[in-house]
Amino acid sequence: xxxxxxxxxxxxxxxxxxxxxxxxxxxxxxxxxxxxxxxxxxxxxxxxxxxxxxxxxxxxxxxxxxxxxxxxxxxxxxxxxxx
Length: 83
Prior knowledge:
Layout: E1 2-6, H1 9-14, E2 18-21, H2 30-38, H3 46-49, E3 54-57, E4 60-62, E5 73-77
Parallel strand pairs: 1-5
Antiparallel strand pairs: 1-2, 3-4, 3-5
């Protein structure tokens, strides 16, 4: 199981801020997890269309090519601005 967190506009788009998910066979990177989630349907397309999507594994910002395993926490962030 991995814990998947969604922040800001992504949380609104997918309808949840947190999900516990068993890693499907063959899903072993952040990008693979993102693609698996996108395949769920329309509301998950926000993960595909978010420009400059950022991710963290176990609270460390990482590239989408980063490996993941059972027990990890994976967070997805849309780009944010502040002022």
